Amino acid sequence: MCLSRKSKAIYSSSIRKGGGKERVNDYSILRCEDCNFVYLSPIPKQSNDFYESHEYRKKWDYEYTPDSIHAKYDHEQNERIIRIGIENIRGKSVLDLGASAGVFLDAISSSAATTIAIEPALIYKEYLQSQGHTYYSYPEDACRANEKVDIVTSFDVIEHVEKPKEFLSYAYELLKPGGKLVLSMPNLNDIIKKVEKDKFEQFFYQTAHLNYFSKEAIPELFCDTVFSSIKIDFLHKYSIENMIRWAKYGSPGNVEEVDGVFDRIFDAHYKSEIERLGIASHLFITAERPL
Ligand SMILES: [Zn+2]
Fold first, then answer.
1. What does the pLDDT look like over 97-114, one tens digit per residue?
2. Gap between the Cα atoms of 124 and 129, Å rounded
């Protein structure tokens, strides 16, 4: 990311192919010694239409119809909306980079004044337009159309892109002066990596993710932009049960053994503490385009 050539391999065993269950051995995970950025090497050879066609979704989600994507990811929108505040969305224009089947935009569209979806997967184009979202395949297309919005969001997308700094520069260009960026991505320093390092690393690293961000690498990501008020926060998506399952079985999910033991308040405390310590599953970053 900083164009330095000084890097060290931090992992070179098997990783997930795409984001699926199959494993591959032909990759290393490297850490830049100058900026701490961690990345996949080599960059997988993917056809240009990898994200436009069904190929990517087939590897990631067995089902990729809008309905099945909603069933799988709708619940993640609650916390995103709480973090931004529905009062900050009402009457505003919102653009989501990597909108998928509109999981976030659908959830806020009755409050937002206008919604724009950027999504290369053409399978979702018709659905996104049917929900009233303006559609573009790529951020370049929205820039060319001179779109400018109050809020740009991008959830779990920047880890997939080949040029994260360029991705961020599009987000900047699409914001009005005074507009706000909300960006989240997986955190390299997830608590589960401490609990069950070997199995978690085999699961966490995947050819679909070219970039692995940590708090330490964020300054380099933003250094070529003039974003201001950059705030790095954390978001933990998974319950205490998920951590117990990793510790006991080395895989994600729930565990019958503790079914009903932990209630809503315990889980809220657990997630807050994990976030406070910076060992959450995701980074949650906000920044502003200066006036
Ligand atoms: Zn670097």
1. 999 999 999 999 999 999
2. 9
Q: What ranges do the domains of the chain cover?
A: 46-155
Distance CA 117, CA 141 (A): 11
- Ligand 1 centroid to residue 221 C-alpha, Å: 10
Tokens of 92: 């505003």
3-class DSSP assignment, residue 50: coil
Of residues 143, 98, 133, 104, the one with CA closest to residue 119: 98
Omega before residue 42 within 30° of 0, cis:
yes
- How far, in Å, is the centroid of ligand 1 from the Cα of 33? 6
Q: Positive or negative, the Cα torsion across 35, 36, 37, 42?
A: positive
Rounded CA separation 27/10 (Å):
11
Tell whether pTM > 0.85.
Answer: yes
Please tell me the distance between residue 37's alpha carbon and the centre of ligand 1 in angstroms.
Answer: 6
**Count of all residues that appear for the chain in the document:** 291
CATH 3.40.50.150 fits 46-155, yes or no: yes
pLDDT in tens, 74-83: 999 999 999 9
